Amino acid sequence: MTIQDPKTASEIASHVEEPSQAELKAPRRSALMALGWARENLFSSAPNTLLTVLAVALLVWAVPPLLDWVLLKATFLGADPQACRDAGGACWSFIEVKHRFILFGLYPHDEHWRPLLAMGLFLSAIAISCDPRFWNLRILAVWGAALPLCGLLMWGGLFGLSFVGNDKWGGLPLTLILATLGIVLAFPLSVLLALGRRSDMPAIRAICVGYIETVRGVPLVSVLFMASIMFPLFLPEGMTIDKLLRAQLGIMLFTAAYLAEAVRGGLQALPKGQYEAADALGLSYWQKMGLIILPQALRLVIPPIVNQFISCFKDTSLVIIIGLYDLLTTAKTALSDPLWRPFYIESYVFAAFIYFLFCFFMSRYSQYLEKRLNAGLKR
Fold this sequence. Notes:
Structural class: mainly alpha
CATH topology of the largest domain: MetI-like fold
Mean pLDDT: 84
Number of strands: 1
Shape: globular
Order of helices and strands: HHHHHHHHHHHHHHEHH
Oligomer: single chain
């Protein structure tokens, strides 16, 4: 047993840093701030206190069974339907078995790498388009390369790729194609409709008002039904238009009518002085709109525009009315297998999760745009 030198011990102790008073008080201050926040936001009044208690009770009632079903009693990779029934929880093995059909629909199983690669190119082009550094002519080069490559991968027929008709397309690639092209093509049309509705020329204004009010007065299902069933009746005998193209046109025309009203709201929100200042500069009508009015108007209506984009993405599920198998339809069709039919909740949860990812991205990106373009009102 060694006896420690008192001098050495004192030297060691002198080098040990004592916590400062501020460090000792920091946890206490954080606890007091948390209590103050709870008192101000959760228990500020009798109704707020009642709602807080009810919300906590609801969480205590709902969360444990949900966790039990999602994780504790769930079956994962490799389980058969009988094992899923015996477990009593979520059967995520259903997603393992059916995910390729849900994602790619009736596309030939051995060729699934083609829609997967096309979807990757499509999403890459969308991601590049969201980067402000590409808000110039380079964006045309990106889409000019991405769209032909995606079409080549999906259709095939060249470079040794077998041909796959678009009647075999389905799942997530079809949903992305319909939603993205519908939004991209509808936006310029909506701007023209909004400008035409505010035009001083009665004929142009009447045509735009009639189109907007007519399309907004009917559901998308009826537009798709007309595009699929009624429109071919007006074509010359022997002439047909592809079913996918008809669906794309229906979605584009329907979305454009709603976007036009959002753009018109932005045009009306601008002060009259902006128009007068542009006229005082001697600008032509299109110079005034393109350089001064439209940039400000579109910044003001970013939230409703993105809201319509999200609605368009979800409304693609209605193309089942004309026999196209989008993501939600393939999730439903995957349940036609009698062995896996009891696990319909898992199929819808998987589809809902994919929809949520894309809609959440659009929502967050709109907030980024508002902050970047300073569209929010600062007080």
